[in-house]
Design brief:
Layout lengths: L1 H13 L16 E4 L1 H4 L15 H13 L2 H4 L3 E3 L26 H10 L3 E7 L15 H10 L4 E5 L8 H14 L5 E4 L1 H7 L6 H7 L2 E3 L8 H13 L1 H4 L8 E3 L12 H13 L4 E3 L8 H7 L2 H7 L8 E6 L2 E12 L2 E10 L7 E6 L11 E5 L4 E6 L4 E6 L3 E9 L8
Parallel strand pairs: 1-2, 1-8, 2-3, 3-4, 4-5, 5-6, 6-7
Antiparallel strand pairs: 9-10, 10-11, 11-16, 12-15, 13-14, 13-16
Helix pairs in contact: 3-5, 6-7, 12-13, 12-14
The protein binds alpha-D-galactopyranose.
Length: 418
């Protein structure tokens, strides 16, 4: 890996800044906690010290990530988002945090988070300013990448406000190059395709997936079911473009999990969790871990669903059926038997009639055609369904704006083929 990385640096110094993300990171979709969706740009630490963007908030969330079992389940990142910066750079030209809200400084916060066994993420913007108007990295890319490395940053979210989308094909790889050049492995989260799509440009996804570990393609998630379903529709409608891009090291990012906040019902929260899992999406919670209700916490900590998301094959799921408000999504997962896979299946009910919809899931039609059959299990309720052969079907009752998520584990009859 080290040698590859060196070669990559040499080549990239000849070939401008292209195509050399080889940081060995994000082999499964990143998991962690991001501030933005829940805490936004609340800078009023005088009147609202518990919720403002401050070192205290991130330290408390880091503590809870560990003490409440999230870290053990895989959520191992704590990331700043917008509004951590001071309005001006320091006299040395370096970025610095707001001194009142981050009095100990960023290295101390990074230390605190690392000492709890977690990764530390930071937010910046490719343009002149961040979306909330703090200094961006334009014209300071090398210095800022070096500063992040000195601060022991593990994850960089690079937004794209106040910049020209037409310059991003050069700018995002350039910053990626400077990150690589520091020698510190930092996960690179890009907003590059989103800003280009907004201005009707066609993103160079080949370059994007070679430069970034994850990237946003669609609008910001908001605290509503309507927002969640708009994202799901975007991913379904554009799946032939998006699915081939995803894989170990590089992921489409449909934005944060809003489970445990104000806008989603219990069923809708299960639906977001299962859909993000089957879409092999980063699982980045944005919720107040101090006050989250136990039933929402349990959804986020469902290890069987997380395992589908984190499956080593890293294949993004596909919408294979959509009719009258019912959708079926499938994703191949391990274990394999010969050339055939196990499968995760989500049945999503978008209907709002007040009674569950009975849905028949015919295995062979969905591509589950291993003649020895599958062990089927429902992952929200942790219930075994039994052995199902390809010509059989599974009947499920799916609650309004809810989901059923099945794992169909292939039955391997000895002798196993390689
Ligand atoms: C953009 C991003 C969000 C968030 C805000 C911060 O809208 O897409 O995820 O980072 O900026 O201002």
């Amino acid at each position: 890996m080290e040698i590859l990385f060196q070669i990559c640096l040499v080549i990239s110094s000849f070939l401008s800044f292209s195509h050399c993300l080889d940081n060995g990171l994000a082999l499964s979709p990143p998991m962690g906690w991001l501030a933005w969706q829940r805490f936004r740009c609340n800078t009023d630490c005088v009147n609202d010290p518990k919720h403002c963007i401050s070192e205290r908030l991130f330290m408390e969330m880091a503590d809870l990530l560990v003490s409440e079992g999230y870290a053990k389940a895989g959520y191992n990142l704590i990331s700043l988002d917008d509004c951590w910066l001071d309005k001006e750079r320091g006299s040395d030209g370096r970025l610095k945090p707001d001194p009142f809200r981050f009095p100990s400084g960023i290295p101390a916060l990074a230390d605190y988070i690392h000492s709890r066994g977690l990764r530390f993420g930071i937010y910046e913007d490719y343009g002149n300013y961040t979306c909330a108007g703090y200094p961006g990295i334009l014209n300071n890319m090398k210095l800022d990448a070096e500063t992040f490395a000195e601060w022991q940053v593990d994850y960089v979210k690079l937004d794209g406000c106040y910049s020209f989308p037409s310059q991003m094909d050069k700018g995002y790889p350039e910053f990626g190059y400077f990150l690589n050049r520091t020698g510190r492995s930092m996960m690179y989260s890009c907003s590059w395709p989103f800003y280009q799509l907004v201005t009707k440009m066609e993103p160079d996804y080949e370059a994007i997936s070679k430069t970034c570990n994850l990237w946003r393609n669609f609008e910001d998630i908001q605290d509503s079911w309507q927002s969640v379903t708009a994202i799901i529709d975007y991913y379904g409608d554009n799946q032939d473009t998006l699915i081939p891009l995803a894989g170990p090291g590089h992921w489409n990012d449909p934005d944060m999990l809003i489970i445990g906040n104000f806008g989603l019902s219990y069923e809708q929260s299960r639906a977001q969790m299962c859909m993000w899992a089957i879409m092999a999406s980063p699982l980045l919670m944005s919720v107040d871990l101090r006050t989250i209700r136990p039933e929402f916490k349990a959804i986020l900590l469902n290890t069987e669903i997380i395992a589908v998301n984190q499956d080593p094959l890293g294949v993004q799921g596909r919408r294979v059926y959509k009719k009258q408000g019912i959708e079926i999504w499938t994703k191949p997962v391990l274990p394999k038997s010969g050339k055939k896979y196990s499968w995760a299946v989500v049945v999503l009910n978008r209907r709002v009639d007040g009674t569950p919809s009975q849905v028949t899931v015919p295995l062979r039609e969905l591509g589950l055609d291993s003649e020895d059959g599958y062990h089927a299990r429902e992952l929200n309720e942790h219930k075994d369904i039994g052995i199902i052969l390809p010509d059989q079907a599974i009947q499920v009752d799916v609650n309004p704006s809810g989901v059923v998520m099945l794992k169909c584990t292939i039955i391997r009859v000895p002798p196993f083929s390689p």
